[in-house]
Structures are given as structure tokens and as C-alpha cells.
Amino acid sequence: MSKREDILLLFDVDGTLTMPRSVVQPEFEEFLYTKVKPKATIGIVGGSDLEKMFEQLNGQKILKEFDFIFPENGLVQIEAGKEVGKQNIIQHLGEKTLQRFINYVLRYLSELELPIKRGTFIEFRNGMMNICPIGRQCTREERNMFAAYDEEHKVRSTMIAKLKEEFADIDLTYSIGGQISFDVFPHGWDKTFCLRHIEAYHNFKEIHFFGDKTEPGGNDYEIYIDPRLKGHKVNTPNDTKRILTELLNL
């Protein structure tokens, strides 16, 4: 029988532990902490920062409940509730390159016509920039409206194609996650980055990853296909629960 220390389960947040930008349901939380955690080491790896993880997963108790927390694709590393490492995109790219990129993005967005626009179009995180054509200060209804509009008009994917062309000389990766934005980060700074920390300090017999954006261009794609682990495609927390129940014989 496997010990808890043999198996690591890594989870995306949006669409995996919660519905998009929603709070985790109490019954799922109880299932994760009382049924899953006793049988396996558990961790989360998300594109968002730690504060947004707190918002979706009921606050700072996640520092106690999860063995690993990897905000910002693992560019911030938290183990046993304490930050143990951090990388920084500003130092990596340099101010001149950053300003060139930001100026282009702001010009592009200023000329982009959408049904609505709100505020906060570029959000800086330690390991990435998050670009949001509609603006992150939109309501849930506006968020859902843009998601449907983007599905039809490919606003984000078109913008990414332009950025790839304009900044072909810079080693950047573009990843669509969630409903309204996309992430930009140096090559290799995707969710597989968290595996560097895990491999350096731990030796699990099995690693499993659960995520919903597993298609090429999605922010779970690189870690989902990584040969060092077993990837599980889910669409809702119910899918996650079903696969965990089968995997751990719950």
C-alpha cells in the first residue's frame, strides 16, 4: 500500500478545484482535506498570485492544508506554509525590454474595439505579466460576456499572434488561462517550473496533475504533457473528484 509521501497530487485552481473565479464548495473542500490528503501529498499550482488563491480557496488556511503552494506558475514556492523561493521577471528581462513590450501592449489595446472595457489591463506578477483586453475590474456578468465574445472573435489569440510577431527576438511564452486574460512569461516559466523545486528537494514515486486548460496554448498544457508526471484533463471540480476517487480507491 502506498504511503502518503509516495504520491504527489498537483492541482490547478480555476476549473479544477473551483468553477472559474468562484470559491471552492464546502463539500469539495471537505472531500479534499479529509479523504484525499490522508492518502497523498497535495499541492496547488496556479497562474494567479497567492492573494487570488486565498480568495478562491477560503483564505490563509490553505497555507496549513496544502503541502505545496505554487502561485504564479511556481515562480513563488511555498512549502509547509512558508515561502522558500521566488523568481522575478523584471530582473530577468530588464527594464528596457519590459517598457518596449508594455508600450506596445498599451498601444494595441487603445486601438482595440470591444463591446466594453473596464480597468487594469496589465497586471504584474513576480514571474509573469497578465494581460486582460477587457480589464480585470469587470463584473462577473461582463466577464462571462467577454468570454463568449472572445470565443467567437478570438480577441486573445489574435493579440498573442501579433505579440509573437512583434517580439520574436524576445524569449517569451504566451498562455491563455481563465475567461478574460492571458499570461506572458519567459520560456520555461510555465507550470512545469514548480517541478524544479519538487525534483531538487523531494523524491515522489508518482506525481499527478489535474487541470482544465490542457490544450496547446492553455496554461496547463506544458505540465499536462510533461513526461515526469501523469496528467488528468478535467472540466469541473466534479471531474476532479471522480478521478481522485478512482485513483485513490476512496
From TrEMBL:
Its EC number is 5.4.2.8. Pathway: Nucleotide-sugar biosynthesis; GDP-alpha-D-mannose biosynthesis; alpha-D-mannose 1-phosphate from D-fructose 6-phosphate: step 2/2. GO terms for cellular component: cytosol. Keywords: Cytoplasm, Isomerase, Magnesium, Metal-binding. The keyword Cytoplasm applies. It catalyses: alpha-D-mannose 1-phosphate = D-mannose 6-phosphate. SUPFAM superfamilies: HAD-like. InterPro entries: HAD-like_sf (IPR036412), HAD-SF_hydro_IIB (IPR006379), HAD_sf (IPR023214), PMM (IPR005002), PMM_cap (IPR043169). Alpha-D-mannose 1-phosphate binds at R21, R125, R136, R143, S181, D183. Gene3D superfamilies: 3.30.1240.20, HAD superfamily/HAD-like (3.40.50.1000). The active site is at D12 (nucleophile), D14 (proton donor/acceptor). The keyword Endoplasmic reticulum does not apply. GO terms for biological process: cellular response to hypoxia; GDP-mannose biosynthetic process; mannose metabolic process; protein N-linked glycosylation. It is found in: Cytoplasm. Its cofactor is Mg(2+). It comes from the Eukaryota. Mg(2+) binds at D12, D14, D212, Y224, D226. GO terms for molecular function: metal ion binding; phosphomannomutase activity. Involved in the synthesis of the GDP-mannose and dolichol-phosphate-mannose required for a number of critical mannosyl transfer reactions. Belongs to the eukaryotic PMM family. Homodimer. This is Phosphomannomutase. It comes from Drosophila mojavensis (Fruit fly). The lineage of its organism: Eukaryota, Metazoa, Ecdysozoa, Arthropoda, Hexapoda.
